[in-house]
Amino acid sequence: TAGARVALLDRDGAGAESVADALRRRGGVALGVECDIAVEASVRTAAAQVRDTFGPSNALVNNAGMLRPGALDEVSLAEWNAVLAVNLTGYLLCARVFAAQMREVGRGCIVHVASIASRFPQTGSGAYSASKAGVLLMSRQMAVEWGEAGIRSNVICPGMIRTPLSAKFYEQPGLEQRRAEVTASRRIGEPADIANVAAFLISERAAYVNGAEIMVDGG
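Above: the chain sequence. Below: its structure as tokens.
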């Protein structure tokens, strides 16, 4: 509805194309691209495909996430590194490649989806909290380093959002109600609650919002 041409990058290429097809059926312009953001070559190939299809990008939403549970004294180094590779390094790789396209048009915006866990430790989550905290400072650094080129960088910190990653949590009887009751809005967040904030941040209405971190947790 915002008139954006949307490219969806995901390791599940068929899944990305399925979502893109659903957007096209609703009158949108969308492209699904297979991409592993933890692999630089994959990111560069995907970005080139997006550029060939739509021209230089002027917005990027980093919205990947991986969780490998475990206490800090137990989580394996391989799992720790796997989470950082997607949740933090993957964000950097995408930002670098798409920022190069933004420089071609003289402006752009990057939105990094982090987590409330970036501010409040999520125990037993291995590298998850650390990776999301890293996103906050990396975004501020991008804002400072790339602001002169007209590129803004901001973060959204979601709270309790119903996603495939969290769906199993809500299968426990009564859990959804208990979690909803601790929010001011008295409900669990939905993906659209995050998408709406991202749409604002990449729009001209947020032209002077840079280096910010917005908590979207229903209070």
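The chain has a mean pLDDT of 93.
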